[in-house]
Amino acid sequence: MKFVCDDNLGRLARWLRTLGFDTVFHQDFSDTAVLTCALNEQRTILTRDTRLAGKALARELVLLSSSDPLEQLQEVIRQRPIVMRMSDVFTRCPCCNLLVEKIDKQDYVAAIPAYVYQTINHFTRCTACARIFWRGTHVQRMIDCLRTAGITIG
Ligand SMILES: [Zn+2]
Q1: How many Å lie between the centroid of ligand 1 and the Cα of residue 154?
Q2: Is the pTM of this model over 0.85?
Q3: 87 C-alpha to ligand 1 centroid (Å)
Q4: Cα 91 to ligand 1 centre (Å)
Q5: Are 6 and 27 in contact (CB under 8 A)?
Q6: Rg of the chain's alpha carbons, rounded to an integer?
């Protein structure tokens, strides 16, 4: 399932991307741009804006009520049959929404903290923003954060 978030849902968009979901979000996206994107790319609109929801009646949309990104994620999960898998976590850049690529750590020695370099072998990189990702302690923190919010990843 692919999503487009309205311009107020940046933190939810980052969570969805981190979990591997293709999620379009732009800070300067107008209602029209959101609707056009949803239609052209067959994306589900996520919004808290009832006015936007009204314009999108005939389209695929989830109207959210919470202002908290994890509660919003729960609302999406309750209303759409999305499946979250550990293997999809960190496959997509949370900033750019692009799929990340595997890299050889030897080629990026200077960009990786020394203790991470020594203990972890699997690294990926976003080709757009050049951020490098690995499954370190922050992954467990993220999973704990989701679990606290009542969300489990299969
Ligand atoms: Zn990126």
Answers
A1: 25
A2: yes
A3: 19
A4: 11
A5: no
A6: 17
Residues whose CB is less than 8 angstroms from the CB of residue 79 and which lie 6 or more positions away in sequence, other chains included: 62
| Beta strands at 123-125 and 61-63: parallel, antiparallel or unpaired | unpaired
The mean per-residue pLDDT over the stretch 48-57 comes to 86
Among 25-39, 56-70, 119-133, the least confident range: 56-70
| Under 8 Å between Cβ of 22 and 2 | yes
> How far is ligand 1, taken at its centre, from the CA of residue 100, in Å?
8
Distance 127 CA to ligand 1 centre (A): 7
| Dist. CA 55 → ligand 1 center (Å) | 31
Distance, CA of 22 to CA of 92 (rounded, Å): 8
- Ligand 1 centre from 153 Cα, in Å? 23
* Average pLDDT of span 132-154: 88
**Which of the 8 DSSP states describes residue 91?**
S
